[in-house]
């Protein structure tokens, strides 16, 4: 949504894998004209990008801007929520904000990014960013009939769905797990009857 009174643009990432936001540049005052032979120009204030979302409680986040570390060591709160306010985004143009996230056990989430077209002197808010869950296998090698534990962290009290693929690349079924308030989830994989 575009708020012309407060000069902000707000987007929700629920239905987008990537997107661009475009708005008109708005001057906060001043003139371009100088007096006599000196002259002077008015420079529009830089844009701001706010990134808000949910990871896992205690997760550590690194935010990259166009592939370079921009913010490092950000920690999600006890509900898994995080908020990044980036100032002085200039010049205007297309920016890619990448996310690297580790859970409290050091497991890495699949990296992802948000791409924005930033116009001068606007504030862009991207809300609803959901960090994908981390996943780990209890064993790397096991015999048929052994039980395999699959676990990780996700947004608190979210549902995690794990697809089970056989050795031929066919989906053998899905299993679901409910994350706790700490974001931890666990399920058991029966190698005799995988989807039981």
Keywords:
single chain; 196 residues; mainly beta; 5-stranded mixed β-sheet; 4-stranded antiparallel β-sheet; 14 strands; elongated
What does this structure look like?
This protein is mostly beta strands. 0% of the residues lie in helices and 48% in strands. It has no helices and 14 strands. It has strands at residues 2-3, 8-12, 47-54, 60-65, 68-75, 81-89, 93-102, 112-118, 123-130, 136-137, 147-153, 159-165, 171-178, 184-190. The strands form four sheets. Strands 1-2-9-3-6 form a five-stranded mixed beta sheet, with no helix packed on it. It has a four-stranded antiparallel beta sheet with strand order 5-4-7-8, with no helix packed on it. The protein has a three-stranded antiparallel beta sheet with strand order 10-11-14, with no helix packed on it. A hairpin with a 4-residue loop joins strand 1 and strand 2. It is elongated and about 75 Å long.
Give a topology summary.
Layout lengths: L1 E2 L4 E5 L34 E8 L5 E6 L2 E8 L5 E9 L3 E10 L9 E7 L4 E8 L5 E2 L9 E7 L5 E7 L5 E8 L5 E7 L6
Parallel strand pairs: 2-9, 3-9
Antiparallel strand pairs: 1-2, 3-6, 4-5, 4-7, 7-8, 10-11, 11-14, 12-13
Characterize this entry briefly.
With 196 residues, the protein is an all-beta fold.
Structural class: mainly beta
Q: What would the average pLDDT be, to the nearest integer?
A: 81
**Spatial order of strands in the largest sheet:** 1-2-9-3-6
Number of strands: 14
Helix content class: under 10%
Tell me, briefly, the overall form. elongated
- Give the low-confidence spans: 13-37
Q: Into which percentage range does the β-strand content fall?
A: over 45%
Order of helices and strands: EEEEEEEEEEEEEE
Taking all Cα atoms into account, the compactness measure Rg is: 23 Å
Distance between the termini: 45 Å
Count of DSSP-assigned helices: 0
Largest sheet: number of strands, sense, barrel closure: 5 strands, mixed
């Amino acid at each position: 949504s575009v708020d012309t009174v407060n000069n902000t643009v707000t987007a929700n990432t629920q239905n987008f894998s990537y997107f661009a936001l475009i708005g008109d540049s708005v001057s906060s005052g001043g003139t371009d004209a100088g007096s006599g032979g000196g002259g002077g120009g008015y420079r529009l204030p830089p844009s701001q990008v706010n990134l808000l979302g949910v990871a896992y409680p205690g997760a550590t986040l690194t935010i990259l801007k166009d592939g370079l570390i921009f913010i490092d060591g950000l920690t999600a709160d006890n509900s898994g929520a995080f908020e990044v306010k980036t100032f002085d985004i200039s010049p205007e143009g297309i920016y890619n904000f990448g996310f690297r996230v580790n859970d409290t056990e050091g497991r890495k989430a699949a990296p992802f990014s948000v791409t924005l077209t930033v116009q001068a002197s606007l504030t862009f808010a991207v809300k609803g960013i959901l960090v994908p869950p981390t996943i780990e296998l209890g064993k790397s090698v096991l015999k048929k009939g052994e039980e395999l534990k699959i676990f990780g962290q996700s947004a608190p009290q979210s549902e995690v769905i794990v697809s089970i693929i056989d050795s031929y690349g066919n989906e053998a079924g899905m299993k679901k797990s409910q994350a706790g308030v700490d974001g931890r989830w666990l399920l058991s994989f029966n190698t005799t009857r995988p989807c039981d």
